[in-house]
């Protein structure tokens, strides 16, 4: 039976939250890290007040509202305020700065930007180059406004953009992808509204809402009518204590969070929580051991990306083997193809391409980038750039076909990273590739560098320079100088060869020299 286009009242946050607030006004459904909470009636009033203040600042239906904030009531006010007006949310990674921050501001052209003092200082540094002409707002500006429902010039729809979300920039500079309200709902509904849950459930969301994964899961939870316990970031050393104290029944673990938790000493809190079901992506090598240790009744996994919300999801009864992504989801059609879009046989790796039964289920374009849009949506299919193999209807991740890296849960564009490094006066050429240290499960970033003529690289100085210009997760761990980079006859760098070379005695490892890079900046453990 074909999937039907939903009524906007069933997927868009404003009508959904209005309905719940009318039916269960005194029910608490949001808990924040600062100890505050909102009932459904209070949350609706906060959203109305923020929307009215945005309108007072000049934001109208169809405009874009950029938000540079971490998880908390301030982000939620801006998020709901924008959507309540029929405006488009532009969530910005709080680690962005410099060229990357200017890039998303330039592409999105927001009517208003909401941030705190620290964020506005970063925005000031790039505003002129980004051509930014937006109203500046602080979180306090969205509080205390009139709580009457703001009038709309036209009805809300499932097809107008609800959010513009930045991609990782895997084949060039990062791109800004459209997410409709239906798209955002589909990204979370497979774990929320499409299964047996109830209003007594609480979802622990500690991944940042400026990422599509958390934004989708938050949207799916709100539509499902379950509570949200929001935290600004995962506290993995105290994860089970946080889960216990928030009374969460649902959670999400991505990337290296699972092996980190498995590597911690066993303690009582691992079994004192109320968590019963979790997204675990990717699954650990032995999911049964993981579930038994942490007292979980269910684990789920799936595959999605900024442009395509979960076309592959776990099906009950499947064994979560390494690389398992799930099966094709209702409403989506998936194929594995070669370089010419010809389908490959089961068991043979091929690029995953996707299309949908109805429009507006996946991203429709990259903002202000028609060439990239045409290339990725060629032949009527969206090309994910990820290699998979299919066995008996189950899909398994093989590798990334695109030239991207992933570190600490963040996708990194090698193109953008290399552009930043080339700006250093001592660097002539550079290529960045992933390198996985022996005995670990996480890729680190390595920069292969051809020095400028007559230049000598000072690695500690270069590291400090990188920290001042880049998001912390982009800063390379390894640096190695070479006379030239391997290239094809068409002068493309052969990155596969650099990956195969790995590290050597000539590789400079910042951690071996006492340097640690985190969101807080650079820490030098000892003089070098």
Topology:
Elements: H1 13-23, E1 28-31, E2 37-39, H2 40-56, E3 64-68, H3 73-84, E4 88-91, H4 98-108, E5 112-115, H5 117-130, E6 135-137, E7 163-166, E8 176-179, H6 181-189, E9 202-205, H7 212-224, E10 227-230, H8 239-246, E11 250-254, H9 257-262, E12 277-281, H10 287-294, E13 298-300, E14 302-305, E15 308-313, E16 324-328, E17 332-337, E18 350-356, H11 370-376, E19 382-391, E20 394-400, E21 404-407, E22 410-413, H12 414-422, E23 427-435, E24 444-451, H13 459-469, E25 478-481, H14 495-501, E26 508-509, E27 515-518, E28 521-524
Parallel strand pairs: 1-10, 3-4, 3-5, 5-6, 9-10, 11-12, 12-13, 24-25
Antiparallel strand pairs: 1-2, 7-8, 14-15, 15-16, 16-20, 17-18, 18-19, 19-20, 21-22, 23-24, 25-26, 27-28
What does this 3D model show about the protein?
The strands form eight sheets. The protein has a seven-stranded antiparallel β-sheet. Helix 1 packs antiparallel against helix 2, helix 2 crosses helix 3 and helix 6 crosses helix 7. The chain is built from 14 helices and 28 strands. Among the domains are: 100 residues, Roll (Luciferase, domain 3); 121 residues, 2-Layer Sandwich (GMP Synthetase, Chain A, domain 3), CATH 3.30.300. By secondary structure, it is an alpha/beta fold. Helix content is 27%, strand content 26%.
């Amino acid at each position: 039976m074909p999937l039907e286009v939903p009524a906007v009242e069933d997927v868009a946050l404003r009508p959904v939250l209005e309905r719940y607030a009318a039916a269960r006004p005194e029910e608490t459904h949001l808990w924040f890290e600062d100890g505050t909470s909102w009932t459904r009636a209070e949350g609706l009033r906060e959203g109305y007040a923020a929307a009215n203040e945005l309108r007072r600042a000049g934001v109208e239906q169809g405009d874009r509202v950029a938000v540079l904030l971490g998880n908390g009531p301030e982000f939620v006010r801006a998020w709901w305020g924008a959507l309540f007006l029929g405006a488009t949310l532009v969530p910005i990674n709080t680690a962005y700065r410099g060229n990357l921050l200017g890039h998303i501001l330039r592409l999105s052209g927001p009517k208003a930007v909401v941030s705190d003092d620290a964020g506005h200082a970063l925005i000031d540094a790039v505003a002129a180059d980004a051509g930014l002409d937006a109203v500046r707002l602080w979180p306090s500006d969205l509080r205390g406004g009139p709580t009457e429902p703001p009038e709309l010039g036209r009805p809300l729809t499932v097809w107008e953009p609800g959010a513009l979300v930045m991609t990782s920039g895997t084949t060039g500079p990062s791109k800004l992808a459209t997410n409709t309200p239906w798209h955002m709902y589909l990204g979370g509904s497979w774990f929320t509204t499409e299964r047996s849950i109830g209003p007594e459930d609480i979802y622990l969301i500690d991944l940042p809402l400026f990422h599509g994964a958390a934004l989708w899961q938050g949207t799916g939870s709100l539509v499902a009518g379950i509570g949200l316990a929001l935290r600004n970031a995962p506290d993995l050393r105290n994860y089970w204590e946080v889960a216990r104290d928030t009374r969460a029944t649902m959670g999400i673990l991505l990337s290296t969070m699972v092996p980190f938790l498995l590597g911690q000493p066993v303690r009582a809190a691992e079994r004192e929580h109320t968590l019963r079901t979790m997204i675990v992506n990717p699954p650990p090598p032995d999911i049964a051991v993981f579930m038994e240790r942490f007292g979980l009744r269910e684990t789920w996994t799936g595959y999605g990306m900024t442009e395509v919300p979960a076309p592959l999801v776990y099906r009950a009864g499947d064994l979560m083997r390494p690389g398992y992504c799930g099966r094709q989801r209702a409403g989506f059609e998936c194929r594995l193809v070669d370089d010419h879009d010809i389908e490959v046989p089961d068991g043979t790796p091929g690029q995953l391409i996707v299309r949908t039964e109805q429009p507006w289920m996946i991203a429709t374009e990259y903002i202000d980038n028609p060439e990239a849009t045409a290339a990725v949506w060629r032949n009527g299919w969206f090309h994910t750039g990820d290699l998979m193999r299919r066995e008996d209807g189950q899909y398994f991740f093989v590798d990334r076909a695109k030239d991207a890296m992933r570190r600490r849960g963040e996708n990194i564009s090698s193109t953008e990273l290399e552009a930043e490094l080339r700006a250093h006066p001592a660097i002539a050429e550079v290529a960045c590739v992933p390198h996985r240290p022996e005995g670990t499960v996480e890729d680190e970033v390595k920069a292969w560098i051809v020095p400028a003529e007559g230049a000598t690289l000072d690695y500690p100085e270069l590291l400090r320079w990188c920290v001042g210009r880049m998001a912390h997760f982009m800063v390379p761990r390894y640096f190695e100088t070479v006379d030239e980079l391997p290239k094809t006859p068409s002068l493309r760098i052969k990155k596969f060869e650099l990956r195969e070379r790995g590290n050597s005695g000539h590789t400079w490892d910042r951690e071996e020299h006492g340097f640690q890079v985190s969101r807080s900046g650079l820490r030098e453990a000892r003089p070098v």
